[in-house]
Description:
Elements: E1 14-16, E2 29-35, E3 40-48, E4 52-57, E5 61-74, E6 78-87, E7 93-98, E8 107-110
Antiparallel strand pairs: 1-2, 2-3, 3-5, 4-5, 5-6, 6-7, 7-8
Amino acid sequence: xxxxxxxxxxxxxxxxxxxxxxxxxxxxxxxxxxxxxxxxxxxxxxxxxxxxxxxxxxxxxxxxxxxxxxxxxxxxxxxxxxxxxxxxxxxxxxxxxxxxxxxxxxxxxxxxxxxx
Length: 116
C-alpha cells in the first residue's frame, strides 16, 4: 500500500518491525521501528486523518484518495506526517511522501505499474 518497510544504503536506515499491520485505510495503531545511525528501537503511535479526494498529475491525471497518518515516537521526541495517494480506479498507491528517520530527508516515491 505504499508504506516503506525497510531501507538499505542510506546514511540513516529504517526498518518497520511489524510491517504486517499496515493497510489502507490507515487505522489508529502502534508500530515498532528500528533505526540505525544512531541505533534505536522505537514505538510509534499512528493517528490517521480522514482521507480526502485529491487530483494529482503524474504521467496523466489521477483521481486519488489521500491518506495522511500523523505519528509520534517514544522515547525520543520525533513526530511527523506520512502521505499516501491511492488511485481510486485501481486501488493502488501511486505516490507516497514519508518521514522515515529523524536524521534523514523525507522520501517521496511515485509508483508506476505495468499490467500484462
